[in-house]
Amino acid sequence: MMYDCVVIGGGPAGLTAAIYLARFHLSVIVVDHCQGRAASIPITYNLAGFPEGIPGRDLVRRMRIQAERYGAHLRISEVTSLKRNGDIFIATANDEFIVARAVLLASGVVNHRPPMSDERHADALAKGLIRYCPVCDGFEITDKNIGVLGTGERAFNEALFLRSFTSRITLIAPEGAHDLIGEQLLTLARYRIESFAGPVAGIELEEDKITVKLTDRVLTFASIYAAMGSDVRSELAAALGATRTAAGCVEVDRHQRTTVTGLYAAGDVVLGLDQISSAMGQASVAATTIRNDLCKQRIILRS
Ligand SMILES: Cc1cc2nc3c(=O)[nH]c(=O)nc-3n(C[C@H](O)[C@H](O)[C@H](O)COP(=O)(O)OP(=O)(O)OC[C@H]3O[C@@H](n4cnc5c(N)ncnc54)[C@H](O)[C@@H]3O)c2cc1C
Fold it and tell me: In terms of DSSP H, where are the helices of the chain?
């Protein structure tokens, strides 16, 4: 079967696009490896329309139901290769070849985690002891004692951002000395943000606190934010020659087109705010662009 569009990734970006594409009467398949950031959110409180909050897993489940209701096909699998043959794309997922006229890459990013097993990490996330996104849940840590794990510009900026939610912030370099310049150290001192060098020798979890062991001290927090960077899942776009930023984000125009004709991108894989709402917004633009671009090749008429 030739699909109008294959969507790679079934998080908020991919599923929003699938809902739009299916409702445009286009044939769409979503291939999802189910390792997304949205599905890992214990509960999100900043998504408009959910005043009591909604667990990420429930949100994704609802979006899947909605996409399927309009005819989108969903496949649990990983796309391991993406090739272009003339005007069509061939995605390989678990020995299956999926052929489509257009591709939307909505594969997200993977956060670098503190050193701990998957099981303990999931437990820490569920209890809000480890967090990744101050924009998302800074409100929830208001006036609490918070650690920020990371160093350099990224962690420095994250600690400063969090300073408007709480006055009790400690910046910890996970591996050794901090990689901060004198001016940054002065700024930390001015805003009363303590900083300690690693290495982190261990992390202990309790019901409502998390303890970080350094070689010379033990620090206990209500939560820690991991500001340790991430890997952008843009390798499939790169294999087709799409332009990426230095950080690995896929470059798109204001209609979510990449530099490869027929390949579009939306969500965290694209440079942006990395929020559910912006992933959905980009996906709605991408889906409408895909529909309009496909119409230029082959007018879609209802018989
Ligand atoms: C702990 C945490 C809490 C957060 N809280 C909030 C919040 O409260 N509010 C908010 O707005 N945002 C929050 N975010 C950010 C939010 O999760 C992301 O911005 C959002 O999920 C981006 O959607 P996405 O569809 O681009 O990516 P994702 O949700 O990450 O989905 C990408 C999907 O693509 C799949 N995939 C990747 N590569 C392939 C492949 N080759 N083949 C098949 N599938 C593939 C992945 O497995 C995954 O299922 C939070 C993030 C984290 C980590």
Answer: 12-23, 56-69, 118-126, 134-137, 152-162, 182-190, 235-239, 276-297
Q: Ligand 1 pocket test: which of 58, 276, 277, 284 has the largest number of ligand atoms within 8 Å of its C-beta?
A: 276
| Distance (Å) of CA 68 to CA 15, 21, 22, 267, 302 | 10, 11, 9, 20, 21
Indicate whether 128 and 209 sit together in one domain. yes
Cβ neighbors of 214 (< 8 A, separation 6 or more) are 172, 196, 197, 198, 199, 200, 201
CATH number (domain holding residue 277)? 3.50.50.60
pLDDT digits (tens, 9 = 90+) for 35-89: 999 999 999 999 999 999 999 999 999 999 999 999 999 999 999 999 999 999 9
Q: What is the largest CA-CA distance in the chain?
A: 75
- What angle, rounded to 10 degrees, do the helices at 182-190 and 152-162 form? 20
In sequence order, the β-bridge partners of residue 131 are 225
In a domain, 302, yes or no: no
Q: Whose CA is nearest to atom 19 of ligand 1?
A: 275
**pLDDT tier at 199, thresholds 50, 70, 90:** very high
Give me the half-sphere count of Cα atoms (radius 13 Å) on the Cβ side of residue 204. Answer: 7
Instruction: Label the pairing between strands 230-232 and 146-149.
Output: unpaired
Does the CB atom of residue 107 touch ligand 1 within 6 A?
yes
pLDDT of residue 303: 77
**Is 25 in the same domain as 121?**
no
Residues 99 and 245 in one domain: yes
Q: How far apart are CA 182 and CA 180, in angstroms?
A: 7
Nearest 5°: the CA angle 244, 274, 157 is 95
| pLDDT tens profile 34-43 | 999 999 999 9
- Whether cis (ω within 30° of 0) applies to the bond prior to 199 is yes
> CA 148, 154, 158: angle at the middle one, nearest 5?
45
Instruction: State in Å: Cα 37 to ligand 1 middle.
Output: 3
